[in-house]
Amino acid sequence: MGDPYPAQLAAKQRRAEELLAPFGVRTWHPAVASGEREYRNKAKMVVGGTVDDPTIGVLDADGHGVDLRACGICSPGHRAAFPVLARFITLARLTPYDVTTRRGELKHLIITESPAGELMVRFVLRSTEPLPRLRKHLPTLLAELPNARVVSANLLPEHKAVLEGAEEIMLTAQQTLPMRLNDVTMHLRPQSFFQTNTAIAAALYAEARDWIRELGPDEAWDLYTGVGGFALHLADGRTTVTGIETSVEAVASAELSRTDAALSRVRFAAGDATAFAVGADAAPDLVIVNPPRRGIGAELAGWLERSDASHVLYSSCNAVSLAKDLAAMPSLRPVRARVFDMFPQTTHFEVMVLLERRGG
Hints:
The protein is of the alpha/beta class and 360 residues long.
């Protein structure tokens, strides 16, 4: 986007207010601004070029590598790691995958940086052929990139437009990256989702905790819990919290975080959010939903509308699908809302809304 950042933020606020205007939000809190640059904690880079001169970035329309090592939205930790990883690609003879000929091995690099500056580095490979060389030269990589704590190989044998495959092979003894936000430490496994903007994620979770503690629920569900960000922030020893997530890897991350923090009234389980809710005997006081861009959908929205849950906290990365879902829940009115600029320099944003049952 070419607009000055304050104009970008104002436009996102206007867009959110326009989409939610039919529902009569009682209070709009000021938008939470992000840093304009260097905000991404995860870099998802296509590897192109040749083994002796690799590019780390994207592919152009002809399938040729375009180097983006100096990309301004990547964190300083990413940009410091890229030259080291480029040298390692050459050292370990990890031939970049050529999408036009379908030859080569190394497809992507996925690098995550924690708030402490530690890195998770994932090599997405076409096959296991490079693994012996990866393992042989790994000590060199760790010596040159000492903040790399977790290194893995992900296998993506299919020729399709996805970033990673189902199989992950750990190359280091440490298998999770600690992500400490506020006073909560979450353990991130290689295939677990985490919010891309650490500072804004911390603000989002802190705000959610403040809103929820004013309600004092006895029981809460955190649907689409991911690695447990909302559930772990909500844990206060008084509220019983259940987190539901389809990703087994994410649930394993959340369970490790729960165990480390000795949270006896928090539990996580792998499963479909809608199926879990529909199959439950009763609703809790509070339901938290943080769905993907498509929203929660008609079935879960319908269940929430019919349930006796007194409050719903909805965190959305797509205000269009949020508005559609709110229209399906007329008994739940939005009492407060706030935009969190998770994605500066784009048109996307996160918006969190607290819903209260009418007459409650």
